Amino acid sequence: MTSPSSQASSLRVAFLGLGVMGYPMAGHLQRAGHQVTVYNRTAAKAQQWAKEYGGATAATPADAVRDADIVAACVGNDDDLRSIVLGEHGAFAGMKADAVFVDHTTASADVARELYAVAREKGLHFVDAPVSGGEAGAKNGVLTIMCGGDAPAFDRVAATLGAYGRAVTRIGEAGAGQLAKMVNQICIAGLVQGLSEAVNFGERAGLDMPLVLDVINKGAAASWQMDNRGQTMIDGKFDFGFAVDWMRKDLGLCLAEGQRNGVSLPVTALVDQFYGDVQALGGSRWDTSSLIHRLRVLSGKKA
Ligand SMILES: NC(=O)c1ccc[n+]([C@@H]2O[C@H](COP(=O)([O-])OP(=O)(O)OC[C@H]3O[C@@H](n4cnc5c(N)ncnc54)[C@H](OP(=O)(O)O)[C@@H]3O)[C@@H](O)[C@H]2O)c1
User: Fold this and answer.
1) Which CATH architecture describes the domain 12-173?
2) Which of 37, 53, 147, 254 has the most CB atoms within 10 Å of its CB?
3) What is the Cα–Cα distance from 147 to 176, expressed in whole angstroms?
4) Does position 84 have pLDDT exceeding 90, yes or no?
5) Pairing mode, strands 143-148 and 131-132
6) Residue 135, ligand 1, Cβ within 6 A
7) Is 67 left (phi over 0), alpha (psi -120 to 50) or beta?
8) Which helix (H) or strand (E) covers residue 16, if one does?
9) pLDDT value for 301
């Protein structure tokens, strides 16, 4: 594991995809002293980023990566990733020999292995590196980064990723980072449903729930979700954070992988359906803690 105190010398870095996560991540690279060139499909966002941080912009992924030692990306899903990596204007067409592509998208282990193999054929390197820590983690530069790929390629990028990662760890071979992120999402799914049921139960019992959470958060039930989402769940506030649509994408990856390797994920499958209910209630962009809203609706009580 690499800690943020590890120093990386100034490098040429490209960053592709300036969404909720990518925008501040690319900003941390520029602030760390690297020469950053960004690409975003919607060019206005790249212009805005360059105005804010002072780096360069490019019109295509291939143009953005030309001189880069490291290319980082954070887009939506497998297909988005293929569209910025492959093809005539994709990153692999423009990268110089021996450069390393680091993918922060939460995607399948399959696409990580596929792009790792294509990279090798072209004399490039590919590291899958999904993140945990959400928008706040990206803005504050304290993400947890789970990596898969060859150890020498990981070693070359780890210190640079420290610009926005509090913990940067190589888990194993290509795809292992994405599999570790699936483990993370399986944990969260069951945990948030448990927390939702607990808060809804306590409210129904007439308890002072802020007080109860404050007390039990010092005991064995403590969690990041309780710390960071307990009060907003009580308040019925969901217009922020990690969107239900993204969570369903992630749980879909977990369930597909589970089916492939013969592992039963009954709670994950159930919670995925519950998130489907939240989407039907209009909560596609709500934070994942909105599972409690579904319970309140079922109990006949509006959030
Ligand atoms: N948000 C979180 O809390 C969080 C936490 C952990 C992991 N993640 C994961 O991180 C990834 C990005 O999340 P986000 O919240 O940053 O998403 P987002 O705000 O929706 O941003 C997505 C980015 O990908 C670009 N993009 C999407 N499809 C593309 C395509 N086909 N070609 C080129 N660019 C494309 C978008 O460009 P445009 O600007 O043109 O749309 C945008 O820059 C996802 O895989 C997500 O699951 C998110």
Assistant:
1) 3-Layer(aba) Sandwich (3.40)
2) 147
3) 7
4) yes
5) antiparallel
6) yes
7) alpha
8) strand 12-16
9) 61
pLDDT-based confidence at residue 9 (cuts at 50, 70, 90)? confident
Q: In which residue ranges of the chain is CATH 1.10.1040.10 found?
A: 180-299
Predicted local confidence at residue 138, as pLDDT: 97
The answer to whether domain 180-299 has CATH 3.40.30.10 is: no
217 Cα: distance to centroid of ligand 1 (angstroms): 32
3-state SS, residue 57: strand
Return d(Cα 81, Cα 90) in angstroms, integer. Answer: 10
Considering the entire predicted model, what is its pTM? 0.94
Q: How far is the CA of 216 from the centre of ligand 1 (A)?
A: 35
Closest ligand 1 atom, residue 241 Cα: 3
Within the chain, all domains assigned CATH 3.40.50.720 are found at 12-173
Q: Quickly tell me which residue has 């020469």 as its tokens.
A: 35
Q: How far is the CA of 104 from the centre of ligand 1 (A)?
A: 10
147 lines ligand 1 (CB under 6 A): no
Q: Give the mean model confidence (pLDDT) for residues 201-209.
A: 97
> Using a 6 Å cutoff on CB, does residue 276 contact ligand 1?
no
Q: Could you tell which of 83, 105, 246 is best to mutate to test the pocket of ligand 1, judged by most ligand atoms within 8 Å of the CB?
A: 246
Summarised one tens digit per residue, pLDDT across range 145-161 is 999 999 999 999 999 99
Residue 250 CA: which ligand 1 atom is closest? 47
* Atom of ligand 1 minimally distant from the CA of 105: 45
Is the CB of 47 inside a 6 Å radius of any atom of ligand 1?
Answer: no
Question: Can you tell me the distance from the alpha carbon of 193 to that of 275, in angstroms, rounded to the nearest whole number?
Answer: 10
Atom of ligand 1 nearest to the CA of 134: 3
CA 122 to CA 244: how far, in whole Å?
37
